[in-house]
Design goal:
Layout lengths: L2 E6 L4 E8 L2 E5 L6 H9 L3 E6 L11 H8 L2 E4 L10 E2 L5 E4 L2 E7 L8 E6 L5 E7 L22 H16 L7 E4 L17 E2 H7 L9 H9 L9 H10 L4 H8 L2 E2 L1 H10 L3 E4 L3 H6 L6 E2 L6 H8 L7 E4 L5 H9 L6 E5 L2 H7 L12 H11 L9 H15 L1
Parallel strand pairs: 3-4, 4-5, 5-6, 10-11, 13-17, 14-15, 14-16, 16-17
Antiparallel strand pairs: 1-2, 2-3, 7-8, 8-9, 9-10, 11-12
Helix pairs in contact: 3-5, 7-11
Amino acid sequence: MKLEQIYTGCIAHAAYYLENNGEAAIFDPLREVQPYIDRAAKDNATIKYVFLTHFHADFVSGHLDLAKKTGAKIVYGPTAKPAYEAVIAADNQVFKIGNYSVRVIHTPGHTMESTTYMLIDENGKEHGIITGDTLFIGDVGRPDLAQHVVADLTQEKLAGHLYDSLRNKIMPLSDDLVVYPNHGAGSACGKNMSKETTDTLGHQKEVNYALNPALSKEEFIKEILTGLTPPPGYFPKNVLMNIQGYESLDTVLERGHKALSAEAFEIVANETNALVLDTRNATDFAAGFIPNSINIGLDGSFAQWVGEMIPDIKQEILLVCNLGYEDEAMIRLSRVGYDGTIGYLEGGFESWKKAGKEMDTVKRITAAEFEKIHENEKQLTIDIRKKVNFNLNISWMRLIYL
């Protein structure tokens, strides 16, 4: 079967490209859709459908732009109610991609519209399942996100639905099916995902704690809900964008692609409420930066940290980037719904320095230097990491010293 996983590591996301006999489908596309269009063009194929497994919370999907640019139909599973034209499929409905078939399996639990897609080859053999956030490798989708959009959908109710979906829809399927999830390790959509991005269903039945047949429904609900940390604040806002619609990425990039001299950049920063976001690495930032700017480096989990550190998804943003990375920064911001870029510093931070503008620095110290200061000078130490990381280290220290 001609199926490709298109994995984007910085947000631990997997989209899928399926093609047969000149027809193609994209499953759970990212906001920037040109790579999918180019991939289909390479096969001289027409993108016929854009399948969504659910209304995503951790990123803004590219389904609207992809449908507009290719004429493809958007497909959701049962109960989805988007504010735009889409095919709302029935449970067990079959779609044709060339001689392949895609069968809808409604698997509520992560969200109520969550759907798994069964892939069937030209000979009628079931090949694999695209599971979205219903089933990951080593984990399942957290059931506490939809309640932040629909209050009546408590995490306990959703966890119960997830139990039923897994037991009645997924676990009876053949062990040799390949599981193709929407995320891998590093995503906030689960709590125990593997770094592997595919596996057989049979192996997952053996090793995935959530597929343990001995768990009662009550035990499953308790197990799934234990250890969940609060979701990032931007998640509900991304869900609403995916339900209600959003601006084309082309429009967002056109608005943000304004190269500003140091003088113009300073004027815009002073006359607007824009946040100055410096996307260089931490070492370069520490050596010199624009006063009152914040640093979130592109070389890491950029989108997730933007969502953690910038509470207002509509925040106007001015970018400071390494040369040539301005478009990448804007695209990665837009993946999580931050469409407010209004310009960037032309020439990067060097142009700011050459213009003689005010700059700040921050001293960085090694772990050994930190330990010495902490022990000898009794400085107040504030740990600003996530609570889960802090607790892990405290537990480790107790293990060593008690």
